Amino acid sequence: MKSQYDLIAIGAGSAGLGVSIAMKRLGFNVLLIDRYDHRIGGDCLNDGCVPSKALIHVSRLIHSAKRSQPFGWKVEGKTDLAAVMQYVRERQDSIRVHENAAYLRETEGLDVELGTARFVDKQTIEVNGDNGSRVVSAKNIVLCTGSKPKMLNADGIEQVKLHTNETIFSLETLPERLMIVGAGPIGIELCQAFQRMGSQVTVVGAEERILTKELPDVSDLLQKRLTEEGVIVKLNRKVKAFPDANTAELELENGLTERIEFDAVLVAIGRTFNFDDLNLAAAGIELNDKGQVKLNDYLQTTNEHVFAAGDAAAGLPAGQRYFSHAAELHVSTLIANFITPGQVLDKKLSYDHFSWVTFTDPEVVTFGLSEHELKTRKISYERIDYDFDHDDRAVIEDYEYARLILFTEPTGINPFSTRILGGTMIAPNAGELAQELILAVQQKLTAGDFFNKIYPYPTASRVNKSIWVDHISDNLPGVVRKAVKWLY
User: Fold this and answer.
1) Is 72 annotated to bind ligand?
2) What class is the 355-477 domain?
3) 189 labeled binding residue
4) In this predicted model, what pLDDT tens digit does every residue of 174-185 receive, in sequence order?
C-alpha cells in the first residue's frame, strides 16, 4: 500500500463509504480506515437502519395477521424472537456482501486498512492494526467516525441489563415487559415493533410529548395510535433509580415517584461521541462544549485539511442530523467542494431541502423548512391542513385518521403559482407518498404542477393533488371567479 494519498476517510459507515468510493471513482488515490471488518457499513448496517427496519417489517406481518381475525382467520401462537433475529441477520448479511474490506479492495479498488487511526500531525495518520502499524498522510482527511448511544445515569443501574440499539438485536427471547427509555425516533419505532410481536411495552420520555422534532398534533396523533395498540406511554418522567434488577423508579415533574416493573430495558436517549483514540489535538482539531468536532459551514474542522461527515458532523452550524441520508448530503457537499477550483465557489451545507421518516405505522415524514424555521427566518407562509377522511384510498384501507400539513408561500392573486416550503405527513407509507412533495420543494414546483397532473384512481398519492384542489377552490379570488364566469 501507498503512504501518501489524495484522501483518507476514517470510519467506514455511510459517510466513509460514500466519500471514499466516490472519490476513488473520480480517479483519486483513497485510503479507507476502520477498526474491524465486521463494522464496515457502520451503525446503519450493524445497529441501526437495516436491522431496525427488518424487525419492523416482521412486526407488521404479525400485526396484519392479528388484524385478519374479524374476517374469519384464526391466528394463534407466540413470536419466536430467535427466528425473527435470524431473519434480521440474514438481511444484514445480504447487504454485507458488498460492504466488507475484501469487496471494497477488489471491486472498488480502494485501499482499506483495518485498525485504530491516530493523528500524528495535521495531515498524517498512524494506523495500528493486527499487522502492526504504519504511517500515512493525505491532502485531505475526512472524519466519518459516527456516534454511539448515550448511556443512562441512575442509582442502581449496575444491577440492570441495559440494551441500546447496539445490543437489542441480539435478544433471542421476547421480553414480556419491555421498558424503553426515550421517546425519540429509535424508541418509538422499536416500541411499536416489540408491542406488535407480543411484549408489553412502556415508553418513558423526559419531554412532554413523543417525537419532539415533529409538529405537536402529529406527535399526539401517533401517540394515540400507539396507545390503541397497547403501548403504555409515560411522559414528563425521568428514571431516578433501579431499586432492583427488574424495577425502575421514575421521578415526575412534581417530585412524586412511581415504579415500573420490567424484564428488559432499552435505552434510546440520544447520541454521544468519543474521539479520544484519534488524538485530535495533534492535528489542531478542536471540540465544542458538547464534545462535538467544531465545524464551519463547509464541514471543515479547525484544521483546514480535515473535514467531518455523517454523525461526526453533529457540530455543524446548521445543526445535527443523525441519518444515513444526512451522510449522503455531507458527502455530496464535500465532493463538490473538493473538485471545485478555489474556495470562492465552495457551497455551504444546508438542510433547507432535507427530509426524514420515522418508520412507525403510520409513518411520519417531515421535509423542507419547519414552521419553527420559517418563523425564525421571518419568512411569510400559510399552513394548509388536509385530513384523509374523504380520500377514497384512505377509506378503502382504513386510514382516514391520516393527515398532510403543508407550509406554503402566501396565496396570491394566482393560487396556482403557490410553492411548497415544507411540510409533514402522517399516514401509512408516508415516506413513499411524500417523495413527490419533497421533489416539489427542491425543484420549486407549483400548485399548478400538481393540479394539472392526472393521477390514476385510486392511488394513495392522489392526496398530493387533492390538498391543492381543496385549497385552490377555497381561496380562488372573487375577481378570478368573475373573470372565469365572464369568459364562459
Assistant:
1) no
2) alpha beta
3) yes
4) 999 999 999 999
